[in-house]
TrEMBL record:
This is Endonuclease/exonuclease/phosphatase domain-containing protein. InterPro entries: Endo/exonu/phosph_ase_sf, Endo/exonuclease/phosphatase. Residues 2-87 form the Endonuclease/exonuclease/phosphatase domain. PANTHER family: DOMAIN-CONTAINING PROTEIN, PUTATIVE-RELATED, ENDONUCLEASE_EXONUCLEASE_PHOSPHATASE DOMAIN-CONTAINING PROTEIN. One of its GO terms (molecular function) is catalytic activity. It comes from Araneus ventricosus (Orbweaver spider).
């Protein structure tokens, strides 16, 4: 995790009640580009207080590779000190909560876009007459509607059937190894190590998928070979094959020594 504390002399309504200025815009772009979390509360006491210059919210606490669940408490304390800046008190936990809900994410390519657009259009039509008195409530409601639309129109995952004839114990072990490697990759927070493990995981995942495809093809070919061997139509194929010798073909004769050309003639002589 990365902690950054500083007097940035930047203003924004995100971490204080003042309107954003030029420095605030630059700092906000930096925060977004580097995926930092702003711990400050915009409704807190001012972090800077000077009798001659007034009050301001310019001291920030930024966090990376962490979440709000790790922050137990945070506040600005205006107790007396020998600086124009007030104390910033916080309590932080490095333990990861096991009860935190798993975040849902979807790939845009996995959405059924036609149904998604239709559902979003119907939702927006119903919300046109909503009053905008409470913007936070309106945004929260629309956000939940989008999440529900994504969940309803996601592509269903195709699970492997228990009776798949191409599945074998070797692929079972390979799948377990890939899943363990994926969990290891997801648990790493250090950027360089995470990148290294990610590259290794992607390479192993590609080899695993390649092995699955090769196993499917080989199993399917073996299955086709068995069908060709036991199929009775194979004999008719051999009759018209150029490699078959004409000596294998024998003309059927009746009791008088006459040649028989139809099945009816053959049955009448029995």
């Amino acid at each position: 995790m990365i902690f950054i504390f500083g007097d940035f002399n930047a203003k924004s309504s995100i971490w204080g009640p003042r309107d954003i200025d030029k420095r605030g815009e630059i700092l906000l772009d930096l925060i977004i580009d580097n995926d930092f979390l702003i711990v400050n509360d915009s409704k807190s006491l001012p972090s800077y207080s000077c009798p001659s210059k007034g009050q301001s919210w310019i001291d920030l606490f930024l966090l990376r590779n962490g979440s709000c669940d790790n922050i137990i408490s945070w506040r600005i304390d205006d107790r007396i000190n020998f600086s124009d800046h007030n104390f910033m008190d916080f309590e932080f936990s490095f333990e990861i909560s096991q009860n935190s809900p798993k975040k849902k994410s979807w790939k845009l390519s996995d959405l059924n876009w036609l149904d998604f657009k239709a559902l979003i259009s119907s939702i927006s039509d119903t919300m046109e007459n909503c009053e905008m008195d409470d913007v936070d409530f309106f945004v929260h409601k629309f956000q939940n509607a989008i999440l529900n639309s994504c969940w309803k129109n996601r592509k269903k995952r195709v699970t492997l059937g228990k009776n798949a004839i191409w599945w074998n114990p070797f692929l079972e072990m390979e799948r377990s190894s890939i899943r363990a490697l994926r969990r290891r990759f997801q648990a790493i927070s250090e950027p360089n190590e995470r990148t290294r493990i990610k590259i290794y995981f992607k390479r192993e995942l590609t080899e695993y998928k390649k092995t699955c495809i090769e196993t499917k093809v080989a199993t399917f070919r073996e299955h086709l070979d068995k069908i060709v061997v036991v199929n009775t139509f194979d004999s008719f194929y051999r009759l018209i094959d150029d490699r078959s010798s004409s000596r294998d073909l024998v003309q059927i004769l009746d009791d008088n020594g006459q040649e028989i050309y139809t099945c009816r003639d053959s049955s009448s002589n029995e």
